[in-house]
Amino acid sequence: MLQYLTKKIIYGILVMIGVIVVVFFLFQGFGDPSRLVLGQTADAATQENIRKELNLDKPKWNQFLTYINDVSPVAIHTKSEIQQKKLTGIFIGGETKLAIKFPYLRRSYQSKRDVWDLLIEALPGTIVLAMCAMLIAIVLGIPLGILAAVKKDTWMDSSSVFVSVLGISAPSFFMGIIIAYFFGFVLSEYTGLSMTGSLFETDPFEGRQIMFSNLVLPAVTLGIRPMAIIVQLTRSAMLDVLNQDYIRTAYAKGLGKRAVIWKHALRNALNPVITAITGWFAELLAGAFFVEYIFGWKGIGKVTVDALENLDFPVVMGSVLVSSFFFIVINILADLTYGIIDPRIRK
Q1: Residue 88 and residue 249: Cα distance in Å, rounded?
Q2: What is the reported pLDDT for 338?
Q3: Average pLDDT of each block of 10 consecutive residues along the chain (347 residues)?
Q4: How many CB atoms are located within 10 Å of the residue 101 CB?
Q5: What are the beta bridge partners of residue 91?
Q6: For residue 313, how many C-alpha atoms fall within 13 Å in the half-sphere facing its CB?
Q7: Contact 305, 289 (CB under 8 A)
Q8: How many other C-beta atoms lie within 10 A of the C-beta of residue 5?
Q9: pLDDT at residue 43 in the model
Q10: How would DSSP label each residue in 320-345?
C-alpha cells in the first residue's frame, strides 16, 4: 500500500508541475499587468517601477523561475522578499534562506489583496455547495438505482434509465439557467427561492446571516449529473448481485425480499458506487465554476470568472492552481479507496 501511495503522490506532483507550467504561459501576453494595476493614465516612471516590482522587466525564463519559486512550498528567498511578500513558513539561513512555506500566489491587480486570502474566503462556499450536491445525488440516486434493478423491464426501470440518461446528457450550465429561471424567477412566489444569492448574506438590521435557501437551486443543479451516474451504477451493480448464488440461497432460507435487497444485495453492490462518489466529488469542485456564476454563489468559481472578466490574472492563476491541487488530492484518495476495496488495482 505504501508503494502504491508513493507512486500516486509522484504522479500527482508531476501533474501539478504540468499545471503550473501551462498556467504561467497561458496568461502571457494578455495585456500589460502594470497598466492593469495602475490604470491607463499611469505615468511611465510609475509604470516602470511596477514592472520592476512584478519582475516584468526580466526575460520570460527568469519570470517563470521566479513564479515557480513563489508557488513552490520549498524554495529559496531573500530576507527582503520574505518581508515584501509577507511569506509564512519556516526559513533557514542568513540573507538568502531556504523556505518551507505556504505557496505565494501573489496579489490581486484589482483589490491589491493576497490571492490566497481571496481564495480562502471563497473556498468554504464551493466545498459546501459540492458536498450538498453530492448528498442530493446519493440520497436520490441510490434508491432510484435500486428501484430500477428490482423493477427491471417495467415502466419504473425505463423511467429511471431515461432520467439518468437525460441527467448525464444535459450540461450543468444549461440546467442551471433553466432551473434558475423557472424556480428562482417564474415560480419564486411559490418556491420562496431566488435566482441568485450566497451562503452568507448581510442584513442591515440583523447582520451576517446564513441563507440555506440560496443553496437549494445551485446544489440541485450541480447534483443532477452525479445523481444520474449513481443511478446507472447502482442499477448495474444491483442487477449483477441479484443474479449471484448467495442471493438465491438467502431467498431459499426464507428471508423476505426487503431483507435480501437491503441487507445482502445492496451491501455488495455499493462498492463501485462508493468509489465513484469519491471520484465525482473532485468533478463537482471543477464543475461548480459556471453553476456558481449563474446563481451568484460566492465560491472559487464565481471569484475566478469575475477575475477573468477584470483581467485579474493572479487571481485566475491562483484559482486554477488551488482547484487543481484539490482535484489531484481527491483523486489520490479515490485511487486509495479503489485499492482498499479491490487489492488487485494496487498491482
Answers
A1: 62
A2: 64
A3: 78 88 78 62 66 72 86 88 85 86 85 87 86 89 86 83 82 83 85 79 68 85 88 85 76 74 74 72 72 86 84 86 84 71 55
A4: 20
A5: 99
A6: 16
A7: yes
A8: 14
A9: 65
A10: HHHHHHHHHHHHHHHHHHHHHH-GGG
Residue 254: the pLDDT is 73
Task: Name the DSSP class of 28.
Answer: T
Rounded Cα distance between 116 and 107, Å, is 8
Closest CA to 306 of 173, 132, 118: 118
pLDDT of 84: 83
**Are the beta carbons of 109 and 312 closer than 8 angstroms?**
yes
> What burial class does residue 346 get, using C-beta atoms within 10 Å of its C-beta: 0-12 exposed, 13-18 middle, 19+ buried?
middle
Distances (CA, A) of 240 to 153, 259, 309, 346: 15, 18, 49, 24
Which domains occur in the chain, in start order?
Answer: 115-346 (1.10.3720.10)
Q: Please state, in angstroms and rounded to a whole number, the distance separating the CA atoms of residues 220 and 155.
A: 25
Largest CA distance in the chain: 89
Instruction: With beta carbons less than 8 A apart as the criterion, state whether 299 and 288 touch.
Output: yes
Task: Please state the separation of Cα 305 from the chain's center in Å.
Answer: 14
Separation CA 104–CA 318 (nearest Å): 9
Torsion sign over Cα 251, 256, 257, 263: negative
Spatial distance between the Cα atoms of 302 and 322, rounded to a whole number of angstroms: 14
Cell of 222: 450541480
Which uninterrupted H or E stretch holds 211?
Answer: none
Q: Classify burial at 247, counting beta carbons within 10 Å of its beta carbon; exposed 0-12, middle 13-18, buried 19 or more.
A: middle
Q: Which of 56, 57, 102 is nearest to 75 (CA)?
A: 102
Q: Phi and psi for 114 in degrees, rounded to 5?
A: -60, 135
* Residue linked to cell 455547495: 129
User: How would you label 33-52 residue by residue, b for 16+ Cβ within 10 Å and e otherwise?
Assistant: bbbbbbeeebeeeebeebbe
pLDDT at position 165: 84
DSSP state of 114: B
Say which residue the cell 489583496 belongs to: 113
Any idea of the CA torsion for 26, 32, 33, 38, to the nearest 10 degrees?
-160
